[in-house]
Amino acid sequence: MICCLKGLLPLLFLFFISSLASPTSLIDAQFKLNRLESEKNVGVSSSGVSFYQNVLSRTLGSQCTLFPNDSRFTQINFRRCGSLRAAFKSMARFYMEPDAVTLGYESISDKEQIKFEDFPGECAF
Amino acid sequence: MSARSNFALALIFIFFQTLCAHAENCERDNELFHLATSLYDEKQFLISSIHFSEISASSCDLKLASRARFAFALCMIELGERESALNALDTTETKRALLLKGYLGVISTDISPSDKIRLFLWDHRFESEIFKNALKDNQLPVHDLERIQAKIIETRNKNPALAGVMSAVLPGAGQAYTGAWQSAALALIINGLFTAATLDFANKNMYGATAASSVVLSITYVGNILNAVNSAKQVNNVKSGPSEVELKNTLFPEFKP
Fold first, then answer.
1. Which of A103, A123, B89, B127 could covalently link to A81 via disulfide, CB atoms 3.0 to 4.6 Å apart?
2. In total, how many domains does chain A have?
3. Do residues B2 and B105 share a domain?
4. For position B151, what pLDDT does the model report?
């Protein structure tokens, strides 16, 4: 009996999360992300972030609960806003990670995971 | 039968064939419009926009094509594509298209005074006094609008500036104020660690390490303030979101596909 309940716990947790935030379309979210990534490069290139994405993230795995994940968010901000603003904004985004549910971000289902949508906004603070 | 009558029969056959094909296309467009509308209601904006675009390109029913262009503009707004929405509205000169343009910030001279009031009310939905004064002496459902606006003001009870100042004084305090306790703990720990490291390096006269540590500390510290401000804004937006949707539906009932 307890084993069955234990098996149900992840499902109950997923149900709890999905009931808190309204789901949005992954296709729409992907479209918005592609549009942001195709914007003209005005900042500096973020080779450090690329190194993280290509080497560290693949080795260590990603625990990011937000969509797009922090490294892509940082890359977009690097391109759009320059290095200084991108660093501040990405740090602010990093603090947001554990409380994405509490803060009521809209949920989407990405690669069998529930993530919370938060796109880069304006460059100005 | 003469060749002339054969030719006439063939012409009549082609005419009816074209008529049937046209009617079939119109029916297909109507069905597609209903499908696209239900997708729009399910928040599938990109897919519904593709269907609306297809219908608007079809010349079967001009009224339906105009409706589809308007619906396409609504989808583009939801996807954050303001320019595409304006481009679609440029080819639609209906009253509601002008109103939607006004909603996007392009006020035309053809827009009616009552529509201007509605747009003004929407723009000043967070300012109680201006909103109430603008409500006087017009044909809108005053009681409903006042009730919804009061709800918006009531739910937007987190002050982003206060959250920022609190986090500047004590990292994590602004996040705690907004109810994001885990973010608060993370901000306090990270900033505490880097402050301690910077002070320790400075005490040991390790100038290079002190400089490096203080650069990282400045990023974590400013990021913490920004996060507190963003959290307060997010909480306000989430809490007032349903009331804002209600206000939008009451002010602009025509903003539907």
1. A123
2. 1
3. yes
4. 93
Give B114-138 as a DSSP string.
HHHHHHHHHHTTT-HHHHHHHHTTS
Report the chain A residue with the minimal C-alpha distance to residue B40. A25
Question: Is A37 touching B (CB cutoff 8 A)?
Answer: no
Question: How far apart (Å, rounded) are the C-alpha atoms in residues B29 and B31?
Answer: 5
B94–chain A Cβ distance below 8 A for any pair: no
Range of the domain at B81: 1-111
**How do strand A113-117 and strand A107-110 relate by DSSP bridges?**
antiparallel
pLDDT digit string (tens) for B168-207?
Answer: 999 999 999 999 999 999 999 999 999 999 999 999 999 9
What residues make up the domain containing A86?
2-117
Compute the distance between CA of residue B151 and CA of residue A89 in angstroms, rounded to an integer: 31
Q: B72-124 pLDDT, tens per residue?
A: 999 999 998 999 999 988 887 788 888 999 999 887 777 888 888 889 999 99
Say whether A95 and B43 touch across the interface (CB within 8 A): no
B232 shares a domain with B164? yes
Mean pLDDT of B29-52: 92
By the CB < 8 Å criterion, does B47 face chain A? yes
Number of domains in chain B: 2
Rounded CA separation A123/B20 (Å)? 55
Residue B237 CB burial class (10 angstroms; 0-12, 13-18, ≥19):
middle
Residues B167 and B106 in one domain: no
Question: Do B107 and B168 have their domain in common?
Answer: no
Residue A98 sits at the chain B interface (C-beta within 8 Å): yes
Has residue A23 been placed in a domain? yes
Mean predicted lDDT score pLDDT of chain A: 76
Chain B residues within 8 A of A37 when measuring between CB atoms: none
**Does A10 touch chain B if contact means CB atoms closer than 8 Å?**
no
What pTM was estimated for this model as a whole? 0.78
- Contacts of residue A97 in chain B, CB cutoff 8 Å? 183, 186
**DSSP letter at B108?**
-
Predicted complex ipTM: 0.75
> Quick check: B203 contacting A, CB < 8 Å?
no
A32, A92, A99 member nearest B182 (Cβ): A99
